[in-house]
Write a structure and sequence with these properties.
By secondary structure, this protein is of the alpha/beta class. It has helices at about 20, 35-40, 60-70, 85, 95-110, 125-130, 140-155, 170-175, 190-210, 235-260, 265-270, 280-285, 330-345, 370-390, 430-445; strands at about 5, 10-15, 75-80, 115-120, 160-165, 220-225, 230, 290-295, 300-305, 310-315, 350-355, 365, 365-370, 395-400, 420, 425-430, 445. α13 packs parallel to α14. Bound molecules: beta-D-fucopyranose.
């Protein structure tokens, strides 16, 4: 084994969560209803009929959770703002109780020596906005600008790192094309409209944040990115992988960093494309300070003539290790995607804002032994270190997730946490991987 891999001095060790996945308390503090409340309460949408009604009860237990973050030695904590806590009806005057909750959270994080990283939209759109078309309505992007402005004005003295939108691919396509996330529609034109408006919202959010940000503050968007590689040597597989890359990576990166959607994908989408108005692409492509990268797995792609619009299918190579989600464990993919984004798009700063794995954890005699998660994180950190060594301006790493939580359509069945939640008692138990991560944050590195 090589010697220890030590990270740069300013490197941030963090963990991430999202509001609907952990907060619970859906009726407290004047919170309105979100599309995920409606979706999770619709029969058949979420495994086991799970909902975020209680989740990890973080809304009430955040002091305990911050104490646990300290035990892990975190320098940063990424969380999201529940839009319906701030604008319960989607518009009008902000709800002071909602803002107060995040104020208390931010203050307590600072008191614990932990830097807050705030995501403004992690998928919990107020239902009243959905009733007016949700992300298919351009007005939602404007409303998001108001949210960004309101939150930055209220918290800007304590928050210096902002993420506008989390994973527009997931919100746009899983929510509107594949129908497995809220609001659950299945239509390409609808999905493309929603995705364009999500990117416009990012632009509106950036402008709003800029008006409140101080020197040295940083803001950007979070993208889920994955290298796309052909399953075999054929041209058909190669071209299919390029289309999947266009669908999931280039669509967003080209729009954000080049101000244009990729031509090959525009041709594929054809008539399903929404109207792009003058000024839209400039708004989307305005300069950002950082790119937040969420990485879980790569895409291995096979040509599939039966697939109606990309003629492509994602496969897992035979014998490859997979997580409980069925996602291939492929740490080199983290290096590959970071290096490529740096070479092709050159964002000034990068953060890994999500990386982690679900495994079938069990609480046995008060302990959770999860060597596979420890190994997963370790191998990915080796790749992150490699990216830093090769000149990628990567500045930190956030494990997904701090706590086991409501994993969207999978409900509570998928556990991603460094900390186990016993949902019957709300007891928190630091897993073996959490103790390991505490050693990593203490030593500021991993063994190579
Ligand atoms: C990401 C989401 C996050 C979590 C992980 C597993 O796509 O941003 O909320 O669900 O996947």
């Amino acid at each position: 084994m090589a010697g220890p891999l030590i990270f740069p001095e300013s490197w941030v060790w963090g963990a991430a969560t999202a509001a609907y996945q952990i907060e619970g308390a859906v009726r407290d503090g004047g919170r309105g209803i979100s599309i995920w409340d409606v979706f999770s309460h619709s029969p058949g949408k979420v495994a086991n009929g799970d909902t975020g009604d209680i989740a990890c009860d973080h809304f009430h237990r955040y002091p305990e959770d911050i104490a646990l973050m300290q035990e892990l030695g975190l320098g940063g904590y990424r969380f999201s703002i529940a839009w319906p806590r701030i604008f319960p009806t989607g518009a009008g005057r902000p709800n002071a109780e909602g803002l107060d909750f995040y104020r208390r959270l931010v203050d307590r994080l600072h008191a614990a020596g932990i830097t807050p990283y705030v995501t403004l939209y992690h998928w919990d759109l107020p239902q009243p906005l959905q009733d007016r078309g949700g992300w298919t309505n351009r007005d939602t992007a404007r409303r998001f600008g108001e949210l960004a402005h309101t939150v930055a004005a209220a918290l800007g003295d304590g928050v210096h790192h902002w993420v506008t939108i989390n994973e527009p691919w997931v919100a746009g396509f899983l929510g509107h094309l594949l129908g497995v996330h809220a609001p659950g529609t299945r239509d390409l034109a609808t999905a493309l409209t929603a995705t364009h408006n999500l990117l416009l919202a990012h632009g509106e959010g950036m402008s709003a944040l800029r008006s409140e940000m101080r020197d040295g503050d940083a803001a950007g968007i979070a993208l889920n990115l994955a290298p796309c590689v052909p399953a075999g040597d054929s041209n058909a597989d190669l071209e299919a992988a390029y289309r999947v890359d266009g669908f999931s990576n280039r669509w967003f990166l080209d729009a954000l960093y080049r101000g244009q959607y990729p031509d090959d994908m525009l041709q594929i989408y054809g008539d399903a494309m929404p109207e792009i108005r003058a000024g839209d692409m400039e708004r989307i492509a305005q300069p950002t300070d950082l790119l937040a990268v969420n990485y879980y797995t790569r895409s291995v792609v096979e040509y599939d003539p039966r697939d109606p619009f990309l003629q492509a299918k994602r496969i897992v190579p035979r014998g490859a290790p997979v997580t409980a989600m069925g996602w291939e464990v492929y740490p080199e993919g983290l290096y590959d995607i970071l290096k490529r984004v740096h070479d092709d798009y050159a964002p000034p700063h990068l953060l890994i804002t999500e990386n982690g794995a679900a495994y079938d954890d069990a609480l046995i005699e008060g302990k959770v032994d999860d060597p596979l998660r420890e190994r997963f994180l370790h191998e990915h950190l080796i790749q992150a270190h490699r990216a830093v060594s090769d000149g990628v301006p990567l500045e930190g790493y956030f494990v997904w997730s701090l706590l086991d939580n409501f994993e969207w359509a999978w409900g509570y069945g998928m556990r991603f946490g460094l900390i186990y939640i016993d949902y019957a008692t709300q007891e928190r138990i630091i897993k073996r991987s959490g103790h390991w991560y505490a050693a990593v944050t203490r030593e500021h590195g991993v063994s190579g």
